Each structure stands twice: as structure tokens, then as C-alpha cells.
Amino acid sequence: MIGESHRYGMMREVEYDLIDDLMDTLKAEFGDVRFLEIGVCGGGTVRGVYRRAKEIGCPVHGAGVDWESQLPQPPPDPGYEPYAGDTMDMWREVKGRFNFLLVDGCHCINHSMTDFLNYSPFVDVGGYCLFHDTALPTGVPVQGEWPQNHSYAGVKDSVLGVRSGLEKTGLLQGYRSDWRLVRELEAEDGLMGMCLFQKLKELC
């Protein structure tokens, strides 16, 4: 069930708690939170990140990639960096380094894979990448494919295939030497769920 407090937008309470814990970890390990969000969808999550950073007394910098209509208005902070456009293209414009990457854009298999491959190089070693809507209901070994309507972005038909994207990149199976799975939250049905990964090294 989605939490009544909506601390980070459309998520469940257990997912809110995971982000709270992650931000505490970032404060302890890095001394700040540098947050890059792929798929901003109005800004509920980034506003929650800024609120939480203030609660724990942690410096925070945020940036987000999404279509113009989906970027937060007004921005959560004067220093917030919006990148308006298709996530497939906007990685070329992104500046800086981050320690918290949230991949929550188009949930089709190709975007899930490409968003990770394009934006994970901006994450510092020791930083984290969190995927949303990774599903895995109890007793179901793989995430199915559900139709999605992204007509506002010019895409009529898409499928929910985040988990398949994670498998195709080798993240879920532990095939990669540069990232490791830290924690997974299963879903109650075919939606929600999270997978948190940590960056171990840069690829040569």
C-alpha cells in the first residue's frame, strides 16, 4: 500500500524507509547527498530527498532528467539542475558526479537498460543506484510485462520490463564486477518493488 505521508511520491512506506536509510548511509559515507533522478514525474521524490537531507542536517544537491512537463515546478532548490528531454539523449548534457542515482523513467526493457548504462558512469565509486518498479511478486520468478501509456512523451505503447532490463545488464545475477546488489524489496503485485545496487569500481 502506498504510504499516506507520500514522503517520496508514489511509493510504499517500506520504500520510503529504504530511501531514508540510504540517505543516512550517504551522509555517513560521503558527508553529502548528490542525487540524480531519471524520471522525475513532477518532483515528489526529489522534494522528499531535500526534506530528508534537511532533517538529518546533510548537504544535498539534486538533478533530474525528464520531459519538460514532468520536471518540478517550482524547483525544490535554487541549485537544482533540470535536464529536459528524452533520457536516451540527455546524458550527454549532464554535469557533475553523484552518489545516489534513481532510475525510475520509462519502464520498458530498453529504457531501463539504457538509463542505467548511460547514467551509472556519473556515480562515484561507493555510490548507489536504486531502481523502482522492479516487482517480483511472491512466487513469480520474473517480472511480467504490463502495458503503459506514455502518450504525453510521444510513446503510445510501452511495457513494464524493469526486471528484465536488470537481468539483461547482468545486475541481478551478480555477473558484473563493477556493481553489487545490496538490497531488494519485493512487490505486493506486479508493480512497485525496488533493487538497490552499490558501485564497486569503475570499468576500465
Please characterize this protein's 3D structure.
The chain has 204 residues and is an alpha/beta fold. It has a single domain (13-199), classed as Rossmann fold, CATH 3.40.50. 25% of the residues lie in helices and 27% in strands. The protein has five helices and nine strands, in the order αβαββαβαβββαββ. It has helices at 13-30, 44-55, 87-90, 109-119, 162-168; strands at 33-38, 60-66, 81-84, 98-103, 123-132, 147-150, 155-159, 179-185, 194-199. The strands form two sheets. A seven-stranded mixed sheet has the order 3-2-1-4-5-9-8, with helices on both faces. A two-stranded antiparallel ribbon has the order 6-7. It is globular and about 40 Å long. 42% of the residues are buried. The mean pLDDT is 87.
Summarize the SSE layout with pairings:
Blueprint: H1 13-30, E1 33-38, H2 44-55, E2 60-66, E3 81-84, H3 87-90, E4 98-103, H4 109-119, E5 123-132, E6 147-150, E7 155-159, H5 162-168, E8 179-185, E9 194-199
Parallel strand pairs: 1-2, 1-4, 2-3, 4-5
Antiparallel strand pairs: 5-9, 6-7, 8-9
Features:
alpha/beta, Rossmann fold, 25% helix, 5 helices, single chain, two-stranded antiparallel sheet, 204 residues, 27% strand
In a nutshell, what does this entry contain?
This protein is an alpha/beta fold and 204 residues long. The chain has helices at 13-30, 44-55, 87-90, 109-119, 162-168, and strands at residues 33-38, 60-66, 81-84, 98-103, 123-132, 147-150, 155-159, 179-185, 194-199. Strand 8 (179-185) and strand 9 form a beta hairpin.
